[in-house]
Amino acid sequence: MALWQVQFVAFFATFCTLTYHTVAQNADELVEEHFDVKPGGQVITVDKKMDKFHCIFTYAAQGGTNEEWVMTISGSPDKSSYTCTVERPGGRSYLFFQQFKMKVKGAKLEEAAAYGDADTPLRPEEYSIHKNTVKYNEDKFRSQLTKIMVFAVVSKKTEL
């Protein structure tokens, strides 16, 4: 990974953490859902909404037993931006992810980051961002996932 990529990931992680903690102070601007990531290879979707913003996480995993994960959506006080994070508390997962995808609706995806075991950033070639979706890259993704974060901005419509 190039130095600029490492610096970007560090900046983005810090930005998301600061945004999360700032927004988390107001419980009305934080939505959290605990769910089990289930092995077995079937494609499963977790969908959560805050205001008009939707965060949709889809995955398929194998190995082990159910693991508790958390989806957190935080919104800025003026509802102009949102952060969605799906993560394994503690940063360790023993599951083998066959695929993952996170999609947002109601806002434009601006930034995304994905992490493997022990919060190690995934290599840039392991996933891609296209429009409002972050998705694993087949034949490049090494099946390790512990966290995925997106930052999205609500587009401002000009009133006439």
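(ticket continues) Second input and output from the same batch:
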Amino acid sequence: FVSDGKVWKVRRHLLTPAFHFGVLKQYMSVYNTEALRIIERLSSYANTGESFEMFQQASMTTMEIILQCAFSGGTMSAQTKNGYVAAVRKLGDLYRERLITRT
């Protein structure tokens, strides 16, 4: 997954403009809104003492930010979002499994 030399330089050159401060600045309101939402959700757990899964919360927040920034908004059902989180978790599990079997 890691490139070096000429390949890395080409990929870095292609990606750098997308992460320029000027580009990211226009999404600050999205980041701030979603940060406040996750704080609100986590606060409700803190107030009740109920346990929760942080991976799920962070993944949902990430999904919302991607939807708002990359796809200019839009809505997605909770079922679809949960499917996304499950798929991300599965990818992580497969990656870890592959690392273990390669060594």
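Agent notes: Residues 78-102 form the longest helix (25 residues). The helical segments are 5-15, 21-25, 28-48, 54-70, 78-102. Closing as not reproducible unless the customer responds.
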